Amino acid sequence: MSMKKAIKFTLLLSIAICIQLFFNAPIAKAEQKKYMDNEVNISKKDLIILLEKLSGNLGSDIADIGNYANADEEYIKSSAEKLKGLNIIDEHVSFANLYESPKKEEVYYLLARYIGIEAAKGKTAFIDDEKLQSWSRGYIKELENLGVIEGKDKNFEPDKVLNRGELRNVIKELFLTVINTSQNFKVDENNKSKAFIVVNTNDAVIENIKIHNPILINQKASNGKLRIMNSDISKIYIAAGSQNFEVQLSNSKLQSAKSLGKNITYTSLGSDGKVVPLPNPEEYKPEGRKPVKKIIKGSRSHSSSGSYFGNNSQKENKSQSDKETEEKATPQDKDIVKPEEKTGTGKITENKKTQSEVLPKVNEGAHNEGDKNNEGDKNSEIQNLSEDFIVLNEHLYADKTLKYKAAQGVNLEDKALIGLKLSGENNGVKLNVKWEGDSLQQVKNSQKGEYRLAVSSLEDLVINDKNYGKVKFIVKIIIE
To answer: 466 vs 58, 322, 325, 381, 434, CA distance in Å?
Structure first.
């Protein structure tokens, strides 16, 4: 090729490249605008993709509403069916047409059900509260109660159709971060948000949560552990399908939890590196618990009040527990039997009950008169036992009851971790124990019902250098 032809070829090639770049530039610009475009309304397909991203099932930033992360039509339809199976999608929001635009009310309703929050009672603080549907109001009210959204002096506009930019603002409002890989997430000290932290990994550490950010633990975190450090958590939500998961507190407090998962445990990591189990905070509602005087015949009395779970160095609770342990029942109390507590509510029935009413009524079998008299004596003995201690294991609920599933069986172990009932303090060492009571065999046989058994430590119980000796106390057991 001659020099002249070579120069001409190079010139033509350069012109062709410039033309191609000229026509491609608007396309790249349009794609970039697609992410930032506030004129494109969202579709119900976008909501499905958002929930998949929140669950860690699809890549890309959750705020990138236009990115379907290679999810085809079949994937989206399958995801919608899965969400129906989890009762996240119900009859109130139809997904028959994935390209239909959802209303703002439907968006918040769906995200609230995905998180797993319960509907609250009463009206919201939004000016146009009367425009909200009855099925959505409670969920929006609960988001308001959590401090995630603010309704005072504002309109909610439930019928409004959101564009992609507005949906990104909703995401920012509800979710502080989504943790998809093993990492340490430290909240900035200037953080004022009360949005949710979403955990999709089975090995993560979060710390410095001081503004009561709620936490949502998703199914992908199963078979793992989340360590919470130097934090004060108002509530943890554990999504349906989650299982075999440990929440470990280190110099932290947890007020309450709601779990739709299975085999979720709570532990505390002390400054000495010792890991001890904590009472199960699920179904615990601090605002629903009122200080009530528990009167036990011939025994000590103490006040039952809501307390944080975690933080092993609870010296203040210890002094209060010791003080209340020293209180003696007054003579006029000696014939009053301890009122029954209603499971999971913290409420106490005020009516006085006889011993036969207080003790379990089911699965007890038939007795003759002599047996009834002997049973009354034994039950009276159990009623006189201390209630200052608890057995700490994975079956312990916040109402200080051990709850078992009949189908899974009941295993009363010969060694148990014993702690103070008021504060949960313990020494981290399991002691040899003996279980006793007329209902012992029924409990071992996993017969459904509500029981009271006596637990005796065969060794001295020492907590924070205080020796309580060999203790014997009542344990309430519910088999469902």
So the answer is: 54, 10, 13, 26, 22
**Whole-Å CA distances, 257 to 91, 235, 237, 246, 336:** 27, 5, 6, 13, 34
Cα 422 from Cα 437, distance rounded (Å): 24
Is the torsion defined by CA of 424, 425, 428, 433 positive or negative?
negative
pLDDT at 377: 46
Percentages (nearest 5) of helix, strand, coil residues in the chain: 30, 25, 45
The strand ranges marked E within 425-468 are 431-436, 449-457, 462-463, 466-467
Query: By C-alpha distance, which of 93, 101, 118 is closest to 65?
Result: 101
What phi-psi label fits residue 116: left (phi over 0), alpha (psi between -120 and 50 degrees) or beta?
A: left
Cα 243 to Cα 260: distance, rounded to the nearest angstrom: 9
Closest alpha carbon to 218 in 194, 195, 236, 193: 236
Give the Cβ contact number of residue 392 at 10 Å.
22
Q: Dihedrals φ, ψ of 31, to 5°?
A: -65, -40
Under DSSP, is residue 227 helix (H, G, I), strand (E, B) or coil? Answer: strand
- Distance CA(106)–CA(112), nearest Å, equals 10
CA distances from 50 to 59, 160, 178, 218 (A): 11, 19, 12, 14
**Alpha carbon of residue 87 to chain centroid:** 18
105-138: pLDDT as tens digits:
999 999 999 999 989 999 999 999 999 999 999 9
Tens digit of each residue's pLDDT (9 = 90 or more) over 11-58: 666 666 666 655 554 433 334 444 556 778 999 999 999 999 999 998
CA 174 to CA 176: how far, in whole Å? Answer: 7
d(CA 427, CA 416) in angstroms, rounded, equals 12
